[in-house]
Structures are given as C-alpha cells and as structure tokens.
Amino acid sequence: MLKLRIITALVLAPLVVWGVFSLPSFYFSLSVLIVVGLASWEWAHLSGITGTFSKIIYATAAVASLVLLVWYLEINHNDFYILLYISILWWLYRVVRVLVFRTPSSATSTAGQLSLATALSCIVALVIPFYAIIYLRDTYSFHGYLFYLVMLIWSVDVFAYFFGKYLGKNKLAPHVSPGKTWEGVYGALVATFFASVIGAFSFDFTLNEGVIFFALSFLVVVISIFGDLSESLYKRQNAVKDSGNLLPGHGGMLDRVDSLSAAAPFYVTGLSVLGFLR
Predict the structure, then answer these.
(1) Which of 51, 135, 167, 276 has the highest CB neighbour count under 10 A?
(2) Where are the membrane-spanning stretches (predicted)?
(3) pLDDT of 201-234, one tens digit each?
C-alpha cells in the first residue's frame, strides 16, 4: 500500500506542478472540470445515488454547474466572494457535525439511502471551491499562491500520514475516522510551520506579513483536516471504506481533494482580506 501511495504521488506531483505553471488557462480549467467530474461521481456514491446512469447524470450536472459558475462570474464578479462565504459557512457547519458526532451505533443508519442534502451540497463542497482554484490561478499572473496551497496540503498529508503511521497512539476522532490520530495532527502542524516559512521567504514577505501568512496557513490546515474528517463521516454513515479506487494507494479522487476543497475557500478569502492578492 505504501509503495503504491508513493508511486502514485511521484506520478501526480510533476503533473500538478506543470499544470499550475504551464498549462494555458483553457486547458487548466478543463483539467479542473475533469477532477470535479470524477470527484462528484464519487460524491454521488456517498449521497446514496446508485446506478451508473444516475451517477453519470449527477457528475455531468456538477461539471455543468461549474461551467455555468465560470460564465456567471465573468459577468457578475462581485458575487464571487458571496459564494465563497456560503461555502465557508457550509464547511464550518461540517466542522460542527464532525465535532458533535458521538454515536457510532447510528453510523450506518443512512447506508444506501438517498440523501438529497448531501447530493446538493456538492455545489458548496466541490463546485465553488474548485472555481476558487480556477480564479486564483487565472486572475493573477503570479501562480505561486496556488502552488503553495497545493504543496501545503500535500506536505501536510505526507507528514500526517507518517507521523500517524509510526507514532500514532491517541485517536483523533474514533467515532468518525478510527485511523486518524493526534500524532498525525502534530505532523501536519510541523509541515505547516516549515511550509509557511519557506513560503514567506519565497514570497519575500516582511516579518509581519510572514507571521500573518503563517496564521492563515495554520487556519487553512486545520480546516483541511476537518475536510478530510467530514468525508470520513460521510463514508462512515454510508458504510464505505474509500470513496473510490481511482488512485492506487490513495483511494478515490475525492479522498485526494477533500482537504483541498475545504481549504480553498478559506485560503482565497484570507489572501484577499489580508491584502496578499494585489
């Protein structure tokens, strides 16, 4: 499993770096649409949608929603941050859901049942966050902020995995995701510190800007952890181990982008509010 995980990461990492820095805007957006389509296919499974045709319709609707959102926000720029705030509020709601979930006996009570709320939440959980990624990449000629976000989430995932695997003893959220530990969180915070220091120097920040950037990175990482736990809660409620098996050693596409989709709205909003996007 670990070998497959490493091989998959080694294949994906250069592709992502190339995509962020070199792909023309159209093809970058097309790549994001493909990711959203694959992730929403798996989200359909978590929503209790069964049948190949139904999942195709659902994934197509999610992709179409993102296309319409790109078109709409080209005309109505000011609505972008309103949508980001809606996505942020939804993710904060999911944080609360994870924190209050304490009934393992009811964990599979919704397994196999269609959840309209879960199905519709794909808009705020995937579509809006991935539009934020397109916006961050294509609105500003400097792609470093997007690259930093992706590398931050990936480095946090790597550190959390190895800290949890070799040092993990204390369960983080046993009713939601028994495999995750506090030691994994500590690993994530170590990665956050090093990544934010490297980022601050790379972006030539002042000391004050660097401290603020670290605080933003810390918030983004905490939210990304809850994004991962939120998907774990959906899977537990539907008696699903992995959202898919598209990526060897990693599970499905949704398993790879859940943290990123939770982090993106907070990150882009934070960059804007704190004056980093100029």
Answers:
(1) 135
(2) 7-36, 56-73, 80-100, 112-133, 145-164, 184-203, 210-227, 259-277
(3) 999 999 999 999 999 999 999 999 999 999 888 8
Model confidence, pTM = 0.91
CA angle 156, 246, 9 (to 5 degrees): 35
- Pairwise CA distance, residues 62 & 32, whole Å: 12
Q: Is 278 part of any domain?
A: no
Residue 258 lies in a domain: yes
- Nearest-angstrom CA–CA distance, 264 and 131: 9
Angle in degrees, 0-180, between the axes of helices 128-139 and 52-75, rounded to the nearest 10: 40
What is the domain extent for residue 19?
2-273
